[in-house]
# Entry
Amino acid sequence: MECSIRTAAPESARTGCLVLGVHGAALGEAARRADRAAGGLLARLVAQGDLGAKAGATALVYRPAGLAAERVLLVSLGERADYGVRAMREALRGAAQALAGLGARDATLFVEDFAVADRGLEDAVRHAVLVAREAFYRFDELKTEKKAPAPKLATLALALAAAPRVPASARAALEEATAAADGADLARRLGNLPANILTPARLAEEARRVARRHRLGVRVLERRHMARLGMGALLAVTRGSHQPPKLIVLRYRGAARRAKPLVLIGKGITFDTGGISLKPAADMDEMKFDMSGAASVLGALAALAQLRAPLDVVGLIPACENMPGGAATRPGDVVKTMSGQTVEILNTDAEGRLILCDALAYAERFAPAAVLDVATLTGACVIALGHVASGLFANDDRLAEMIERAGEETWDRVWRLPLWEDYQEQLRSNFADVANVGGRPAGAVTAACFLSRFAKKYRWAHLDIAGTAWRSGREKGSTGRPVPLLVRFALRYAERA
Ligand code: BES
Ligand code: MN
Ligand code: ZN
# Structure
């Protein structure tokens, strides 16, 4: 399903389905025009209570006389007083889900009526694309029998009834959101692939494929390169696995002049058993999603290349498996990291920070303008923030604010947590420079504090996406987060830099 944008008149639009917003009992502007042409049919339907009051409720009318459309889908926006981004996204989701169940091949959604007053039209366009594309995402490449037939809808046109022509800013918002949705689709697919298929080698292959399609530079470092670079922490994590580790380096060059790059690092643990500090059995399958940071970096780079964004970006993806075995790292083992600091590995399940600390040291060679790492790093972050916000940590306030704003704009939200020196004590080791775990209290913070020791030479931020990268239960699957945030942030960063 693809999204487009155009001007249209609700009365005369030839479309498989008109999609019109309704606030409580009040038809939106486009619905009012359609209603007039249809002799008051839509207002009667609403007055009779056939449209639910909650944002996202829908009601369908077939071939209303007086309109050119084959169908009309009324969508509740909820009460006007409560209308905000949350209600807008609920309404858009409801509309998209209803459209996915129809026979219509195209639909026309009058997007102005969905906009939140103080956020503007571009914002509504962005969310319409992101929400609809998520609603239409399917992962069925591993099912031999397609249970549910694919939705028929091929295009969702976002229509403007009030404007004489499509403003450039709205078209730009559509293009950005489309690229972000493509990137999120890629991240979702990689996240959903199981670990027997998506091995570190396969992840590197997928990265090469993305690089070819989007003309990115790509290089994959092998175990021997890691050894030569002194990446003792990354090598310690991969020891128990039969799958060779990969360090994927991607490069997008979009800046007009020579510029310091933005470096994005993604945790690429293709499966996290915990290693010798083995995880309990319940829900361990979800640890195939432990490469979601890597997937989001790949998705964001693809999107930025698709948009020809005016900046340089380096993507760094340390990829390996965390397995137990005769050669696996033991609790208490001490390793030397690429930075020179030694680490006592007290818990082999705190492996994310180990692969990331060597990637952070490696990032120095790119003379970065800023470094942002993205990782499903701690269960503690899920306890702190649930499945709503990703955890944000940063050694630079301006960088943190830019990320917060990008998250708010894409509704891919983050919440900042402290990196205070006081927490560093918890990482004390009797045998090495630092321990890889800091105990139960503030687990997300101490993990970030560990990383901060390897990110002293540049502006750095860390996103803990453990609670936001995938959903559990019946709806189990990758969310594609934080690709929308990363794309928005990088574009803002390009403007500023
Ligand atoms: N990948 C996990 C974090 C995780 C756990 C994400 C559950 C989502 C759900 C990470 O490698 C991990 O195991 N972290 C440990 C750290 C602990 C040993 C200090 C954790 O959170 O339990
Ligand atoms: Mn782990
Ligand atoms: Zn992990």
User: Anything to note?
Assistant: The mean pLDDT is 98. The radius of gyration is 24 Å.
